[in-house]
Every structure is written in structure tokens, then in C-alpha cells.
Design goal:
Layout (H helix, E strand, L loop, with lengths): L11 E2 L27 E3 L2 E3 L3 E3 L21 E3 L16 E4 L2 E4 L7 H14 L4 E6 L4 H14 L3 E5 L3 E2 L5 E2 L4 H14 L4 E4 L7 H10 L4 E4 L3 E3 L2 E2 L4 E2 L6 E4 L4 H14 L4 E4 L5 H10 L3 E4 L2 H4 L3 H15 L16
Helix pairs in contact: 1-2, 2-3, 3-4, 4-5, 5-6, 6-8
């Protein structure tokens, strides 16, 4: 019998490093009339009722956010990152505020792929929402095993995180070298029976080089960007704020980088793109779609407002109305470069 586990609330270290945070209010949005706008999109053959996905690592497995609204309001849920075996994650502090964003080094705390399939996936499958499983592995073989199990369990898509270290390559992240990224992609594709979407790291010299490698290896879609490596130091103690010293930067500060990289990748390969990085408004999402994304993911904004994905969805619909578009997918690739 599965026992519900409770975790202590995550400590988020503020600008002064004292762990304080201001009171948050979460008003539910009033949805506008968008009955005449087609919000549906296609992501690598997976039909989404709207283009807004919640990003991996920011939504858990949906249980907590399901207390605010019906999960079927979303286009898809990209679940918290899974590994082959359960992980406890990194020691605290592992989240720190930054101007216009946060740094995190949570460390892939998760119940393992089998725990997810047994205890979390059934709840999601009872909701009218597409389920995307995010996976990370220490070896290409681990990716293959997880793709096989998750495909058989009935997820709609698998997002392959290639920002984690390859144990066999001396700890070098898969996403930093084309040949390593391609190796993992081929392994995932050979074991998955659902579409495989590869999540690209921005911590590279040329992201299009990695995009071409995974496209040639058979990826069905790409998601980008993952977090950028960053650091904060408490000047009084002279110690890094995060116990792991460095972490991944996300939030509004990274949006211009995400828009640029989505545009570059969309110009380089002909694969569907799930754009993410700093999205908190409909206009943010529209920028990523104009740059070439077929759908968008909302992540860090959820920590400030659990209704953020619904507000982004409605904002996109409003932009479609303003621009006299019959469908939001007409935004994709609509950029007019100088």
C-alpha cells in the first residue's frame, strides 16, 4: 500500500540570504470569451487543447496545483524529472532568489520511474490532460530502460533531459557535446513507442550544433531552454548561498536568451519546438511562438502565481483576437526579421 509522503516546505533564500519571503495572493483569473479562437496545437503528433504546458520541476506531479484548478485546463503537464531509481536530491539551501528569477540546485528529487508509474501517473491519467514524462540518466542505457517502461505505462510523450552528467564520459553533460547528445537520443528513440522530445541546454557555445545532432539522431521534437548555470555569494559569510555552490538560473531574466535560442534552432532544424524560459505573460509566450515554437512551457512563474499558465493561455488568446487570427498556431514562426 502506498503511503503519502510529506516534505518540509522548500526554503527559498531571499536577496538578503535570510530565508524571508513576502505574502503571496493568488487571485483566480477570469477567462475571456475565446470561443471563436482555436487554441489547439500539435506537438510532434500529440494534440494539445492549448499551447501552454507546465515545465518539468515546477509543477511536481500536479497534486498541489490541482487544488487551484482542474488540470484539464492545461495543454500538457511535463512532470517532475524522473530517474531510474529514487533520489533524495541535494542538501538545502537549494533555491535562492535572484533579481528577476531564481537559482535552483534541487538535484532531481523524485520517487523513481517505477514509483511514478505506480503512484503518480494514475492520477494524471484520470485528468483530461496530456502527460509528458521528463527523464534523466547516468548512462544511455538508463535512458533506454526508462523510455521502455514509460511508453508501456501510457505517457503521451517523453522529454529527455540531456543536461545531466554522463558517468561514462567523466561527468561531462550529454547536452554539451553533439555526439553524446546524439547517443542518448538514439537510445531513447530505439526504446520509446511515443514521441521523444529532447531538452536542450543553453550552456553551450552553439545550441544549433546540438539541435542538428539530436535531429539527425531521430528526435521528434525539441524543448528549450533549460536553466543557465549561475551563482550567488553571501558577502557576510563569503559562502555561496546554495549548498551545491552553483545552480540553474530561471525566470524572467532568461526570456531574451530563450527567444534568441528558439529562433536560432527553428532556423537550423525542422522539428517542433516547445519554447520555455522566463514565460509569465501571454506576450512572453507569443514571442517564443513567433520565434518558432509550436507550444510554450510556464515554469518559474508558477512559484509566484499558481494560475500563471491559465493567464498565459488567456493572454495568447487575447493576442490572437487583437491580431485577427483564427488560431493561435498562426503565431508560430511569424517573426519578421529585419
Amino acid at each position: 500500500m502506498h503511503e503519502e509522503r510529506s516534505f518540509e516546505p522548500e526554503t527559498i533564500v531571499g536577496h538578503a540570504g535570510n530565508g524571508c519571503s513576502s505574502e503571496q495572493l493568488f487571485p483566480a483569473p477570469e477567462s475571456p470569451d475565446t470561443s471563436h479562437v482555436d487554441l489547439s496545437v500539435d506537438l510532434a503528433g500529440v494534440p494539445l487543447k492549448n499551447p501552454v504546458v507546465v515545465a518539468s520541476g515546477t509543477f511536481g506531479f500536479g497534486r498541489e496545483y490541482g487544488q487551484f484548478y482542474d488540470l484539464s485546463e492545461l495543454g500538457a503537464i511535463c512532470c517532475k524529472g524522473l530517474t531510474l531509481h529514487p533520489r533524495q536530491g541535494n542538501p538545502a539551501p537549494r533555491i535562492a532568489e535572484t533579481p528577476m528569477g531564481i537559482l535552483n540546485s534541487v538535484g532531481l528529487q523524485n520517487p523513481g520511474v517505477d514509483g511514478f508509474i505506480a503512484h503518480e501517473l494514475p492520477l494524471l491519467q484520470r485528468s483530461d490532460v496530456k502527460v509528458i514524462a521528463n527523464i534523466s540518466g547516468d548512462t544511455p542505457e538508463e535512458y533506454g530502460v526508462m523510455c521502455e517502461r514509460l511508453s508501456a505505462a501510457g505517457v503521451d510523450m517523453i522529454e529527455v533531459n540531456i543536461s545531466c552528467p554522463n558517468v561514462k564520459a567523466g561527468g561531462m553533460a550529454y547536452g554539451t557535446r553533439p555526439e553524446l547528445a546524439a547517443e542518448v537520443t538514439k537510445m531513447a528513440k530505439s526504446h520509446a513507442t511515443v514521441p521523444v522530445m529532447v531538452k536542450l541546454s543553453p550552456n553551450v557555445t552553439d545550441i544549433t550544433e546540438i539541435a542538428r545532432a539530436v535531429a539527425d539522431a531521430g528526435a521528434d521534437a525539441l524543448s528549450l531552454i533549460n536553466t543557465l548555470r549561475g551563482m550567488r555569494i553571501d558577502v557576510s559569510s563569503r559562502r555561496p548561498i546554495l549548498k551545491m555552490n552553483v545552480g540553474g538560473l530561471s525566470g524572467p531574466a532568461v526570456l531574451p536568451i530563450a527567444v534568441r535560442m528558439v529562433w536560432e534552432v527553428a532556423c537550423a532544424v525542422k522539428l517542433p519546438i516547445l519554447g520555455m524560459g522566463g514565460v509569465s505573460t501571454g506576450e512572453d509566450a507569443a514571442q517564443l511562438m513567433l520565434a518558432g515554437a509550436s507550444a510554450v512551457a510556464v515554469g518559474t512563474a508558477l512559484f509566484a502565481d499558481p494560475y500563471a499558465p491559465l493567464k498565459v493561455r488567456d493572454g495568447l488568446a487575447a493576442i490572437a483576437v487583437q491580431q485577427d487570427l483564427s488560431a493561435v498556431n498562426m503565431l508560430t514562426g511569424g517573426i519578421r526579421p529585419w
